[in-house]
Every structure is written in structure tokens, then in C-alpha cells.
Amino acid sequence: MRRLTLFLILIACAAPAWATTTITWGSGPWYVNTSTGSNNTSCGAVGSPCASLNYILNTITWSNSGTGAAIIECDGNAADATAATVPAKTGTDPTHFIQIQTTGANRHTGTWDATKYRLAVANATALIINNDYTVIDGLQITNSQNGNLQDVVRIGALTNGANQVVISNSILYGGGSGTYYQRGVAANGNYAQVFLFNDLVYNFPSISTSGSFPVYQSATGGVLSVYSSTLIGGYYGLDNLTGTMTAKNVYAGGSTNGDYHGTIGLTTCASSDATGSSSPAGLRSVAVSTTADSTHAGFTNITGGSENYLVKVGSPLVNTGTDTHGDAAPMNFTTDIIGISRPQGAGWDIGAFELSAGRTVHWLIGSGFIK
Q1: What percent of the chain has pLDDT over 90?
Q2: 98-116 b/e with 16+ CB inside 10 Å = b?
Q3: Which residues contact 229 (CB under 8 A, 6 or more apart)?
Q4: Other CB atoms within 10 A of residue 95 CB
Q5: How many separate domains does the chain show?
Q6: Same structural domain, 116 and 167
Q7: Which of 30, 93, 114, 177: CA 20 to 30 A from 234?
Q8: What confidence score (pLDDT) does residue 8 get?
Q9: Which domain holds residue 38?
């Protein structure tokens, strides 16, 4: 009898290891690790990560209970090669939202890093966002293409008047196809309210007017705000076809037909052509270049495959931006893409980076952003 009792106790103690994971609002962090994770219905907890972001979003059970962010932390040295969709979740609102981020140890340091977590997908849109309240922070995302409109990130139709998508501190790297066109961020879902800040979006060659833009909006009732970001390449750089678009402290350069296109409210935005802000003087015709002078951006490296868009001393992008920390959340940030405080000089710098004499990564992980 004692042996039977002991056996039953051991089974009861072991049961949680077989239990199905259930994610609730305000829970977590929940974990993805491409190096050590395994996709099964009990994955996601600390010590038992899932192997892919899409699995934890679409296969693990989600429950409409609790309050706060359901936080997913992505880790691992191997590429996450499965295209991911953030599905519409029941009960999502400003106090019930999904936040997907990288851990400090596996977050990029301002340049693409193939040894850190990256969502790198072949022949498909890498990330589709269909959930009304979603935050993407500090991710590296890329894809290759075998057809048109395989975007890096695409935002679907969201609930009219009740949504907010934030993409911050992230690197979105285009497939670079000379045959197929794509968008870095395609906000083409009606009513989507999208906020981008401290993002690098590059490697988009010019293909046609139908696509190949670093950032694009075509959304009835849509609102897209882009702050302190660096956008390189494309047929157009920042393109607004339908909806309301605002850009502040953005550098867009290297497009073939207009760095800014469509109706866009510009504040201290620089360009490599004549479409940037007219005031202050000197923000137009600033070439994508490693030279740092009044007509050249002064990036650290623009060689394909090893790009580094940190600007140098002497760049016209330094100290010429607008202080936006008093703007409404989530655009009241005070740091750059790797957590350097803004400003470091007489004013904010334009683009994703703030030039600092001693650059040390100061990541602010899990800060939320949803207003």
C-alpha cells in the first residue's frame, strides 16, 4: 500500500511537466529559443522554451483572462525560419496586449547580427500582424523572395478606432531582390494605427511603382507615424498612398523616385533628394555616403551585407532634429535604437542613432509603450 501511495504521489508531482501551456493577459514572459527550444503544447515557460515565434502565437493555448501585456521573449543563435502571424486575440485592448521582444543578451547592437535572434524567412512575408494591440521591440526581421509582395512586416485590417501597433528599436532588412518587389513595413490594413520609432529599414532595391518601399501605407482610416528612423532604398522611401502619415527626425535616402512620396507631415526629416524638410536648411540632398559633410550623411558603413548606419561627427544629421519627448505616447521616447539617451549634443540627431562619444548599449527591455 505504501508503495502504491508513493507511486501516485510521484505521478502527481510529475504531472505539470505534461500540462498544456495556457497564456493569459499579464502573464510571462513566455519564451522562444531557436537554439534550445522545442515546439510542443507544454512549451513556452522558463526552462522549456518553444522553438519558433509562430508556434507560441498560434498553437499554444491563449486564455482571455488577466490584465496587462502577454510578453514573449525571443532568444537563440539560430534563425527562426518559420513565418509568423500575430493573430487577433479575444479581449485585446490597451490593457491587454501582446509584446514581442528580444532578451538583452540576444538583441542586436544597432547592426544586423547573424549570431543573435532573428526572424529570417524564405519566400513568404516574415511577420503579419492582425492583433489590434501589439508591440514589436528590438527584433531583427528579414526574408527572401520568390514572388511579389512578400513583405518583411505586414499589418492587416484592425478594429476601427480601437487598435495600436508599435514597432520600435528594430532592424527590418529587405530581401534585396532585383526581380520581386516588397515593403519593409506595409500598413495596408484599414484603420490601422501604426507607430514606428528608432527603426532601421533598408536593402530595398527599386523595382516598380507597385512595391519596393521601406515603409508604405495604403489604409482607409489608417494613421502611420514614423519617428527617428533610417530608411534606405526603394522606388519610394516613405510612401503614403491612403491614410494620414507623419514623420519626424527621419532620414530617407537612396530611393530612385522620391524619398518621401504622397501627403506626409514632415518635421526635420532629411533626404538624399529634394523631398525632405525645407526647414531648417541643409536637410535636402544629403547623400547616402560614408563621407560626413554638409551634403553627405556620414554613415559608418554602407557596404551591402555589413551596413552600419551610425552617423559620424560632421554629419548634417547630428544635432538638427526635433525634441519629441513631449509628444503623446508611445512617441515620447528619450533613447535611440540601442538605448543611448537623446540628446547627446545641442539637439536630437536625425535617424535611428544618437551620436555619442562613448557608445554603450543601454537596452530598456519590456517598457510596454501601449498608451
Answers
A1: 82
A2: bbbbbbbebbbebbbeeeb
A3: 196, 197, 198, 199, 200, 201, 215, 250, 251, 351, 352
A4: 14
A5: 2
A6: yes
A7: 114
A8: 36
A9: 19-62
Tell me, yes or no, whether 69 lies in a domain. no
- Separation of alpha carbons 209 and 86, rounded Å: 28
Cell numbers standing for residue 202: 533598408
Half-sphere exposure of 141 (CA within 13 A, CB side): 34
Contacts of 36 (CB under 8 A, 6+ apart): 49, 76
Alpha helices per DSSP H over 277-336 = none
Query: CA nearest 250: which of 202, 193, 190?
Result: 202
**pLDDT (average), residues 322-329:** 97
270 belongs to a structural domain: yes
Cα angle vertex 277, ends 227, 295, to 5°?
100
Helix (H, G, I), strand (E, B) or coil at 293: strand
Same domain, 232 and 113: yes
Element (DSSP H or E) covering residue 218 = strand 213-227
Assess whether pLDDT exceeds 70 at residue 252.
Answer: yes
What pLDDT, on a 0 to 100 scale, did the predictor assign at position 17?
A: 45
Distance between CA atoms of 240 and 261, rounded to whole angstroms?
A: 6
Residue 136, C-alpha cell as written in the block: 514589436
Query: Are residues 138 and 30 both part of a single domain?
Result: no
Show the DSSP H helices in the chain as ranges.
2-14, 53-58
Q: Cα-flanking dihedrals φ and ψ of residue 249, to 5°?
A: 60, 35
> Cα–Cα distance between 204 and 214 in angstroms, integer?
6
What would the grid cell of residue 321 be?
Answer: 532634429
Q: Is residue 208 part of a domain?
A: yes
Q: Each residue of 46-72: pLDDT tens digit?
A: 999 999 999 999 999 999 999 999 999
